[in-house]
Every structure is written in C-alpha cells, then in structure tokens.
Amino acid sequence: MATVAAAHHPPWRRFEQKEEFTDRIRNTLQDYNCESWGAGGVAQEFLANADDAGANRFALIYDGRTHGTANLLFPGLAEWQGPALCFFNDAKFKKGDWAAISEVGISQKREDDSKIGRFGLGALTGYCCTDVIHIVSESTFVILDPHGSYLDGGPGIELDFEEQEKAQMSKIYDTLSPLDVLGGFEVEKKHFPGTLFRLPLRTEDTAPKSRILKHVVQQENVDRLLSDFIRKAKDMILFTKHVETVEVYVRSEDGPPSLLARVKIHGAHSHNAALRIELPSRNYLNP
C-alpha cells in the first residue's frame, strides 16, 4: 500500500479539536438517539449549517461505493473507504468556519441567536454514523479523527491543495477521489466547488473499536434516513433564509448519482412563495 512519506516536511498540518473530544461527542449525541437511528436530525443539522453559510443549494447523498485503498494519506484510513453519507452545499467555508469546527467547545454561534445551526456542535452530529469525518471546501481538505487512531496518532489533519504538486496529489488519490460524489471535482484541478462533509459509515469492523458509539450502520438505517428527510424537506425549506434547492441522491458502484428527490422554493421571501417537488423515485417513501 503506497502512502505519503512523513519525511521532514509532510504535506499536511495537524488540525486539532480542543476538547476531550470523544466524551464531548458522546454527550452531544445523547440528544439525537443515534442507536435507534434518529439520524434524520443529523441531516437537518447539516441543512441548517448550510443555510447559515449562505448556501443556495443543499444535497444529501448516500454514496454506496467502495473506494480504493492503494494510495491513501494514512494506512489507517483504509477502514473508512466504504459507503458514506455526504452533505454538499454550494457555499464556501470561511476562516471562522474552520475555527468553529476546531474549537467545538466555544462555538462562535452560541453568541449569535440568528444562527439556526450551531457550527461545530452541529457538525458533531455527524458522529452518529462515523468516527472519521472528511470536510472539503475550495482548496482546503480536513480529516477529523477524534480517537487519534486512523491518522497516525493525531486528532485531525489539514491539507491545502494549492500547496501540493500534482505528483503528490496522485499519491493520495484514493483519499481524495471519494470527494467526487456529484461530479465537478477533479483531483488534478485542486479545487472543490462548494463544501462537502463525507461521513463514511461504521461497519462491523470499526464499530467495536469506537469510544463514541458501537452501533453498526445498516442499509435499513440509511433507507430510513433518506425517506424521513425526503418527507420533511418540503417543510424544512420553508424555514431557510438562503437555501432554495434541497436534493437527495444515491450513488451505486456503477454509474452517476441518481436523483431521488428535489424540492425548490421560488419567491421564498414573498407572500407568493411556491414549492416545486420532484420525486423521480418513490421507493424511499415506502422503505
């Protein structure tokens, strides 16, 4: 397995979250009833955070693909190359947004009541289904590992695409290629059009080692999340300030993403607001 050499000047920087993090996550998740898969609230948190960031488009994607493990940033990440839940929005992370993720215990949103989602704390809900979170926005890529088990001992790393040579990027291709869930991201171009959170799902191999949750995410859990979110999307979009399009996709091993649902609101801030709902596949309304 080819990995990046950690010589004198590794291409990444440590990215730390400043709390006894697994304890904080576990306590936060008690409000979400994750083990009985109350994860519909997870998708709502990410939608709220996208709206806070000023995004116009939000998408929930279930990526059912299994990705390669030959060219990874760290060997331990091989356990997280399987199916994932992904949350995309077309806004871009600001410097303060990265700080809010890093300094979860003192989220700046606590002092701003106009913010629906609590940045940092909202992202913690992603640990309902994973122990490792990937975040990419424009040229910045962060991996969070609160256990310090999969990134050679550190709780997180930050990688700036612009600082990397193309040859270096190709050496970690299997770490980066899963970020292309909707199209539009090419590793060689060193730029992601928007923001993506990738949550690789806990498996029978990884769940027993977790100090956060030991719940294995099954296909039925994913189906329930997708169907619940599709049902609620038309109501949730009425309360957003910026998001005008909400989409749900699935992506299988072969082929492009398949649209399950799209909800668009027109004239959101007028008395004549109108919803347009597309349901190309109704299967997830009756899981």
Automatic annotation (TrEMBL):
Which InterPro entries does UniProt cross-reference here? HATPase_C_sf, SACS/Nov_dom, Sacsin_chaperone_reg
Per UniProt, residues of the Sacsin/Nov domain are 18-254
**Pfam hit, one:** SACS
- Molecular functions (GO terms): Hsp70 protein binding
Q: Which residues form a coiled coil?
A: none
Q: Which domain of life is it from?
A: Eukaryota
Name of protein: Sacsin/Nov domain-containing protein
